[in-house]
Each structure stands twice: as C-alpha cells, then as structure tokens.
Amino acid sequence: MSDIIQLLPDNVANQIAAGEVVQRPASAIKELIENAIDAGADKIKLIVKDAGKSLIQVIDNGCGMSVTDARLCFERHATSKIRKAEDLFAIRTMGFRGEAMASIAAIAQVELKTRRIEDELGTVVEIEGSKVINQYPEAVAAGTNILVKNLFYNIPARRNFLKSNSVEMRHIIDEFQRIALSNPQIFLSLHSDGNEIYHLPAETLKQRIVHIFGNNYNQRLVPVEEDTSIIKVEGFVGKPEFAKKTRGEQFFFVNKRFVRDPYLHHAVMNAYEDIMQAETFPFYVLFIDIDPARIDINVHPTKTEIKYEDDKAIYAIIRSAVKRSLGRYNIMPSLDFEQETSFTNLITKKSLDEIIIPTVTFNPDFNPFDTDKSKSSYSRSDSYAEGFAKKTGGIPSNWDSLYEIVEKEESVQLPLHTDADQETDRPQAIQMEDKTSSKLFFQLHNKYIVSQIHSGFILIDQQAAHERILFEQFLAQLDQHKGLSQQSLFPQTIDLNPSDNELMKDLLDDINGLGFQIREFGKNSYIIDGIPADLGTGFDEIKMIEKILEDYKNNQSEYKLSKRENLAKSLARNAAIKPGTQLDNTAMAELVDKLFACQSPNISIYGNPVIVTFTLQELAEKFGKN
C-alpha cells in the first residue's frame, strides 16, 4: 500500500490560511491599513469599489520597501516585526505573524508599488494566486501603493458567501472606524465608488469621535483617565441618557489594538448600574496601555482576543475609573452632607427697600349669576371671572342646566353590582358601555385588556397585540409595495453617520413602500416628506427613522431575519401603542377584533404570548373551591 500523506503545495496552504485571516473584504482592508501604520505612515488613503469585491487600494506615505522586501513580503511567515520567540511578549506593532500579505496574494490579483525615500526608483510586483506574474522597477511615489483586485476570484464558493454590497460596505466602515479611533494622529480618508465617505485630518481623540459619529456626540462624552501600576486607562464614555438598545458603539483598544472582550465590557456595564435603562448599551472608546509582557495577543488569527496576566485587577480598575468619571462630571447623583439647605429658599438678593408687599383686589359688587350687562362693565383687573366671561362671550343664562347634565351622566353609569348580576352570577366591567360596541372590555393598569369568555376570561397585552397587527399589515404592504402615505406639513431633514447611511440606502425602497416619503439630500442626509398614514399624528419623524434603523440592526444580529420581515418588525415595534396608553371601550374592541383577524394572534413578533387565558376552574382552585 502506497503512502497517503502528502505535503500540500504552497498555493493551497496559503488559500487555507487565507480562510482564517481574510474572511471578507473588510478583513483584507484591516491588514493592509495596519501594515501602513506599522510602516510609519501619517497619511493613508483607502479606495474601494463594489464594497471591496472588485478593488481595494491602500495608499500610504510610509517608509516603503526595497526590491528584495517587496518580493519577500508575499512569502508566508515573512515579517519585519519580530526576530525570535521572545519578541512575542514585547509586541507594539499591529502585525507580527507574516501571514496577511501571503493570504491576500493567494486569493486575489495583487499589484504592489513601493519606494523608499532614499531610493530613486521604486518597485512594482504583480502577483496572482501566490504566483509572481511580473516584477520591474518604476518611478513611483515614496511609500506604498497596493491594489487588491477581484478578491476570492479563484475561490468561487467563498465569493458566493459574501453578502450584498451594502452589508459588506458596513463591515468596511466598521473596520475603518476602529482604525481611525485608535490612530487620531493619522490622516485617513475613505472613498467608495468615487464618493468620499470619510475625510479625517490629524486631530485629538475627541475631535476624531465627533467627526466619525456626528456633531451631536460632542455633548455626550465624559472623559475617563486612570493611571495605575498595572494599566493606564484613558478615553471617553457616553452619558447614560444617550445609551442605545443596539451594540456597535463600544470600543476597547489594548496598546492601540482593537479587541473584543466580554469580560471588560461587563466591567463598564457594571459601572453604569442603576443609572441606565435596562437592555441598553452605552457608548465608550477606552484605551488600555499595558506592558506587552503581561498579555498574550497570539490567541486568534484576527488578533481581536487577548489573554491577561491579571484580568481581575484590570476589571476592577476599569470599573472604578468609569464610575469615578461619571460621578466627577455629575452624571451620577450625589449627596453633599455638609451643605445646609434648610434656609436656602428664604435667601433673596434684593434689599428690603425693593421688596413690594403683595396686595389683593376684588370687587364686592361682583355677582356671577347677574346677567345685567350694565353691572358687568368692570375694568379687567376687577375680577378674574369677568375676564373669563368676556373671553367666552359672557356667562350663559342656562347655567342651571349644568346640574341636569351631571345628574344624567350619573344615571347612566353602570353600578358595581345589580340585581341581574346576582341572578345570573355574571361579573360586569366597571366601565360605561359604548354604544358602538356590543362587548365590554376592561383595561388593567393601562397595559392589559381583560375580556370575558364563556370558560373564564382572557388577558391581552395591548402593546404586543398592536405590534402583531401592525407587523402583518406592514408585511402585506411590503409585498404589494402599496403603503398609504400622509404628507408632512413641514418636511424634516435627517443626517446619518456613514454606516447608517449605507443601511438606509439598502432599505430606502422598502421603507418608502411602507408609506414613507424619503429622498436623498446630499451626503449622508435625507428629507422626510411623509410618513405612513396608519401611524397617525404625534410622531417625531427623525426619531422614528433612527429607531427603525437601530431596531433593524438589533434584529439582524439576534434573529437573522429577512430584510422585509426585519423592517416590518422594526416599524411595528416603534409605531405600536406603548404601556400606559389609556384606551376607551371602542378602541379596545377594535384592537381585539383586528388581533383575532391576524394569522398568528397568539404569538407576538418576538415569540412571546399575546393572550393568556384564565378558566373558571383555575379561578376556583385559587379560591380553594373544587
């Protein structure tokens, strides 16, 4: 029997390694920009086409490479970052394995142009599928210019698994934001299909945050700074009232390297305990500077996971640093036990001579039941009642009929117990019956609707019921693309960050299909001309769109829904009536009728029950009756 174990060719081994390092265009962009940062560049330009599927180009003004280095950088485990195993515990650079360039060259068509400052001519290297096609000298600018074309061209299965351009572009923007936040001293720009998405000059961290996320973040930031013998923590956290229901604006950087660490995230969330709404996530950008010998970053191929020597101490430091910053800037409530507040309200800055004693004037001849016009010609200051009478057209002569109306209203109110109730042993709702409805409903704590059935009674969650009704209604409108619209009297303009702007472009046709009238208006801006007629009035259009996008991202990460189902669910959640809304009998009857007309009336749009049934047998058991 012949041997069956064989050594894989280099190009196959590189493609296997590329599956771990380069998962999508955003992964390749991360590796290329980090190489430019390690090369000492202070100006980096990123150009993408078709969300990086057709072209990824990174131009920097770093140190450049020699002829030999330009060819050697595409070999596996070829790196300038480390020389021996001990260097792994003193890493300050972004890359160190020497796998990124080899992995990218194995699955794409790559063209590299580079020149050192001291050289007169640069070098051009063309490589496809790990094979060097051409290499020649050429006059190029100092630094490095690398073009990655047709990513995954020789792995069609991997290319087919890529998402739509809008989704892949959002991943690119996320990676770009992380790099931009960790390096505010570097000029960075991002161009997509000929449009400039970001233009970030060298600036401070706070300015970089505002440029990336918007001007409204300028008032939301609270600085954090803590220096200990173990770590140094600095950065910004968001005020608790601006916390969002979706993740995505939480950034941890360890030695300027972005990491995902649920343990440290819990430390920040613990610092916000009792001052933030449940199931919300605060904004934070925190930098941890630590001795490289105390951590191990060689854990995951993407280098987003780190092991710490003393993680419990780091947890405690981060928690206390964030909590102290929130208290220092009066975000958290505090008590001053040394302040005497007993006479605070009695202190006045005016002198006693300037204080005027208040007086009360009245008309002793005023009679509210006197209809004689000659007696009602008082001055405006004579009485409040007369002024009110003038505004309302005088005091009505049939004022005594008011008491008759009250007596009529009292006579039509249903009593708590009637003779009929005692005969039939049937409970009645303590609410006046509406003439338009044959059934009686009772609202419990303005949250639930109680309705009697033959076997007992049912309890309906009014918000979940309305969400189910709207969800199926919006889903039908999306299928037909015929949502009724209500024109806004004053169109509103909404500005989005680049990531939400890409999402908005992808959803715009479907959002308008629901009844919205939204059109693009310049860079990252949209004009809202109308909203769905089913929403009624009283909605803030801008907040509505922001919440829809936020819930859409949250649903996408948790439930993996289709685009239309996700959009219908997001809009239904924000348009439904909220707990605490008082409903009359007619509104409750209409809500219940529409609920039972749905395809799935018993299940909410999030899989929870909408209707709970209580039988007479269950009630009898509660009272100890068999």
Automatic annotation (TrEMBL):
GO terms for cellular component: mismatch repair complex. Keywords: DNA damage, DNA repair, Endonuclease, Hydrolase, Nuclease. InterPro entries: DNA_mismatch_repair_MutL (IPR020667), DNA_mismatch_S5_2-like (IPR013507), HATPase_C_sf (IPR036890), MutL/Mlh/PMS (IPR002099), MutL/Mlh/Pms-like (IPR038973), MutL_C (IPR014790), MutL_C_dimsub (IPR042120), MutL_C_regsub (IPR042121). It holds the Pfam family HATPase_c_3. One of its GO terms (biological process) is mismatch repair. Residues 209-327 form the DNA mismatch repair protein S5 domain. Residues 440-583 form the MutL C-terminal dimerisation domain. It comes from the Bacteria. GO terms for molecular function: ATP binding; ATP hydrolysis activity; ATP-dependent DNA damage sensor activity; endonuclease activity; mismatched DNA binding. This protein is involved in the repair of mismatches in DNA. It is required for dam-dependent methyl-directed DNA mismatch repair. May act as a 'molecular matchmaker', a protein that promotes the formation of a stable complex between two or more DNA-binding proteins in an ATP-dependent manner without itself being part of a final effector complex. Belongs to the DNA mismatch repair MutL/HexB family. This is DNA mismatch repair protein MutL. It comes from Sphingobacterium athyrii. The lineage of its organism: Bacteria, Pseudomonadati, Bacteroidota, Sphingobacteriia, Sphingobacteriales. The gene is mutL.
